[in-house]
Write a structure and sequence with these properties.
alpha/beta; single chain; 9-stranded parallel beta sheet; globular; binds (2R,3S,4R,5S)-2-(hydroxymethyl)piperidine-3,4,5-triol; disordered N terminus
């Protein structure tokens, strides 16, 4: 009997390690999330902050989430709810999430709201909130304590890590086989606010003392592999590997807190303070992640409240949070954090994603806005930046009752279209065969070189727009400034272009005109990937394509869809 049991146990272990657990794997240049051994795209959405705290509230939400085609939901798990008394744990809030997610065949990314949520420490249990002597707060320069647990306290860090380890142990126990929980976000938009750095006594000592030894060693070892932002400042200050923070990175340029005139968020005001806080936030969260991974090792990331025109400097946005300006600090002090991710609510989405795509950082957007603009941006990032997943915020609101409505949300329609083509996208991410594009009223055209053609992409302008260069005719509607389009293209080895896009015209021109400068469409069909297989729809020609002698040959993609095209070339006899 005993022998039979141990054989069974060995079989369970073997089966588990065969498919492993959710993990990041390289595929060409891309990093992909594998679940049960297979890569997956997270067609996701994040719940509002309080949604997951109530099973009753969520009962009305789950059917709508399914109807809106989310395959993954980001949901908060809070320290205050799982450890209401010190050392006594209650995982019911996690268990109801996992149970319901499985019922609806939806995966989860759990957000660990603990030491910090949007910089503040509002989700810590009451026994931590009230014991400010044992769990010290960050301080402003005036000595005023803030409602922010200080990163300079090991008590804070270890108490958080203890609760997090208990959570990860629980997830391992209940979820290793099924892999409903895919990743963990450690904290939420952490960083110091209202002041460029923490001024508590321990922080002052650290700022005026030598930089940590590991940081000096990191700079030395990675001197040719630092972010350009850090490399510039470090070199300007003599490329030192020891000394105080101000000796190594210089005395910061100081910004005014009053907002007059133009603010340029690229200006590195208080940069040394940001690096300093970045190092210590990273160390704290890296410790928590590493402790959690000892229990259950799945991908872990941190999300950022970005700097931008309204929050240009550290302290105005949570300073030391996981932004590319301090990416080197995270790589040095938090190796257990696998990815830094931006919450993008500011307009320059493409610039932000490009900024995060440094030093091999995978791209995942945990929070942003949805709608048609969201879809165009997502398609671009999928093709151009190997996007792991996309997740607009507050999706429980529109999900309530959505199962009873006709689904018209652009994102829900896009997720339905993309779901069946996941294998196709994932096979091509990380290779030269795939490119993405995004166009809007400010940048209505772009070109990509792919194979023997240049692909020219133009935004479909709203109707009545005065396209002929002259003034708009009387009564014509104004340009819709929010018009946008996006998509991705895959070039197969046989020369077929597969274009998934919306709101664009796609035309081709030979890269090298030579003796065959003219092109035409050989074959063009629309269709859809269903369960990974291409299912052909209409053969497109005539009014459904651009075939005018005047305007050139190409694809009309006014609404989201996929078209496959092959081309031919001709010249003078
Ligand atoms: C960003 C935060 O990360 C979210 O939890 C939420 O508070 C939103 N802002 C609110 O829009």
């Amino acid at each position: 009997m005993r022998k039979a049991l141990s054989i069974l146990a060995a079989l369970i272990v073997a089966a588990t390690s065969l498919s492993g657990q959710p993990a990041f794997r390289k595929h060409g240049d891309a990093t992909q999330l594998t679940v049960n051994g297979k890569p997956m795209l997270l067609l996701a959405g994040e719940l509002g902050n309080s949604a997951s705290s109530s099973e009753a509230y969520m009962k009305d939400v789950w059917p709508g989430l399914k109807a809106l085609n989310y395959n993954t939901i980001l949901a908060a798990v809070t320290w205050e709810m799982i450890e209401p008394q010190e050392g006594s744990f209650d995982f019911s809030s996690v268990d109801h999430l996992i149970k319901s997610a499985r019922e609806y065949d939806i995966k989860l990314v759990l957000l660990w709201f603990a030491s910090w949520k949007n910089a503040a420490s509002t989700y810590i249990p009451v026994w931590v909130k009230t014991d400010f002597k044992r769990f010290p707060r960050a301080e402003e320069g005036s000595g005023r304590p803030l409602e922010i647990l200080s990163t300079f306290s090991d008590n804070n860090m270890k108490a958080d890590a203890k609760a997090f380890s208990a959570l990860m142990r629980h997830i391992r126990e209940v979820d290793t086989a099924q892999q409903t929980v895919l990743m963990i976000q450690v904290e939420n938009e952490p960083g110091i606010l209202t002041t460029p750095r923490d001024f508590c006594p321990e922080a002052n000592a650290a700022f005026n003392g030598p930089i940590p030894k590991e940081l000096g060693e990191y700079l030395k070892k990675n001197r040719n592999n630092l972010t350009p932002t850090l490399a510039k400042v470090w070199k300007e200050n003599g490329s030192k590997t020891s000394g105080t923070w101000e000796e190594v990175f210089g005395k910061s340029k100081i910004g005014g807190w009053e907002h007059t005139g133009e603010r340029d968020w690229h200006d590195m005001y208080y940069y040394t303070e940001e690096l300093f806080m970045g190092y210590y936030y990273a160390r704290y969260m890296g410790y928590i992640a590493a402790e959690g991974k000892k229990e259950y090792d799945i991908p872990m990331y941190c999300n950022a409240w970005l700097k931008g025109p309204d929050y240009p400097w550290t302290g105005m946005h949570p300073g030391g949070g996981p932004l590319p300006s301090v990416m080197d600090m995270y790589h040095c002090a938090a190796p257990a954090i696998d990815m830094l991710s931006p919450d993008i609510y500011i307009p320059n989405f493409t610039e932000i994603v490009e900024w995060y795509d440094q030093l091999g950082n995978p791209i995942f957007i945990p929070e942003t806005s949805s709608g048609s603009l969201g879809v165009s941006r997502m398609l671009w990032a999928m093709g151009e930046h190997n996007l792991i997943g996309f997740s607009p915020f507050g999706v429980d609101r529109s999900a309530r009752g959505a199962d009873k409505r006709a689904i018209t949300e652009p994102l829900a329609l896009a997720y339905a279209h993309l779901d069946g083509m996941q294998d196709f996208i994932l096979a091509n991410q990380g290779t030269d065969a795939m490119r993405g594009f995004f166009v809007d009223v400010e940048h209505p055209s772009c070109s990509l070189e792919m194979g023997e053609y240049i692909v020219n992409i133009d935004l479909v302008m709203p109707r009545n727009y005065a396209t002929m260069g002259g003034p708009a005719p009387t009564g014509a509607r104004q340009v819709d400034n929010s018009a946008n389009g996006g998509g991705f293209i895959v070039l197969s080895p046989s020369g077929e272009y597969t274009v998934t896009a919306q709101n664009v015209n796609v035309k081709f021109a030979p890269k090298d005109p030579g003796k065959l400068p003219y092109i035409g469409i050989a074959t063009l069909e629309e269709g859809e990937y269903i369960d990974g297989k291409w299912v052909k729809g209409r053969t497109l020609n005539g009014d459904e394509i651009h075939a005018s002698i005047f305007t050139g040959t190409g694809l009309k993609m006014n609404s989201l869809g996929t078209q496959k095209v092959t081309l031919y070339r001709y010249g003078k006899r």
